[in-house]
Amino acid sequence: xxxxxxxxxxxxxxxxxxxxxxxxxxxxxxxxxxxxxxxxxxxxxxxxxxxxxxxxxxxxxxxxxxxxxxxxxxxxxxxxxxxxxxxxxxxxxxxxxxxxxxxxxxxxxxxxxxxxxxxxxxxxxxxxxxxxxxxxxxxxxxxxxxxxxxxxxxxxxxxxxxxxxxxxxxxxxxxxxxxxxxxxxxxxxxxxxxxxxxxxxxxxxxxxxxxxxxxxxxxxxxxxxxxxxxxxxxxxxxxxxxxxxxxxxxxxxxxxxxxxxxxxxxxxxxxxxxxxxxxxxxxxxxxxxxxxxxxxxxxxxxxxxxxxxxxxxxxxxxxxxxxxxxxxxxxxxxxxxxxxxxxxxxxxxxxxxxxxxxxxxxxxxxxxxxxxxxxxxxxxxxxxxxxxxxxxxxxxxxxxxxxxxxxxxxxxxxxxxxxxxxxxxxxx
Length: 428
Hints:
There is one protein chain. By secondary structure, this protein is α/β, with parallel strands linked by helices. Helices cover 49% and strands 21% of the residues. The chain has 16 helices and 15 strands.
């Protein structure tokens, strides 16, 4: 493949056509061929930082180095302002192609590192093989695009096209759209699992748990759609929905349970973004709920991803009057210095320790130690995963404050939970 005459411009209009012709010629000769698609990141950011012309020069430098690397056994085309295609012939096996991809990453990395003022460019590389993945030029280029997207989804710098992984990605895309439709249509709802005060036996709160019944697919596991929402950015909408809905329910339950509180789970991405503070403030104001009746639950490990940012957000949440609960406590860092500094009101002992505390001395020691540790820092303690009266009684004896679990009650839709409150008559 010859160097295009307009290679200094950011976009090459006929690059795809030239690449297709080269692939077609190799396929007709029954040559083994690797189609390597290189997708550059941060091009716009580079333009904003060092200017359009300097970015053009930087990409041109990368292009020339890739062209030199290709040599006589390969060819290179620029497909757009951020895409290059490299065709590699004469390789011995897939490992040889992997080494070529690694060398490409090094070329890009060392070229951009040498740029003193720029933000640095990086790339995701997608690879397809001819004849392994087919011989039609347009289909091979399409599959290379799929491999790039799959690599971005998996966080891989280089990704070979894999049918199973690509199918999963397409399934995720379909589920992503279904989730967006479900949010708009109101197909998601909150279920509520009661929290009982072990001293009085009264229901003092509930944990709000999101549920989704997709019209065609039926119930979707929270583990699936929460992870999907986190990766696609839809988690912002889900969190806003959960806080708004929880505040609305608190407002509706005020007459039957005026002191009831509701806890909403918040993911690592959200807890590092101060927008959640505005959401809490507006939601409690709209529904006339005192912030003290809303609790934000965050997992112990999620707080360690960016301690400074998450601590700032949690501090602001507490300044509003809302409470902060550390979920899954005991499964992560659990250091004394960590507890000393974290802005929290409550610890939740992970269910794995609670469920095994009567049969495993180690689990019981962890539960007992956690309760004592929390008390020493002025924190209340919630035990989750209660599945028997014996566990409930032992937790009461150890001085645990609150408990939740299937022995007490499973998570219920809002209407059923309201009826449960009235039927038990044991609200604070």
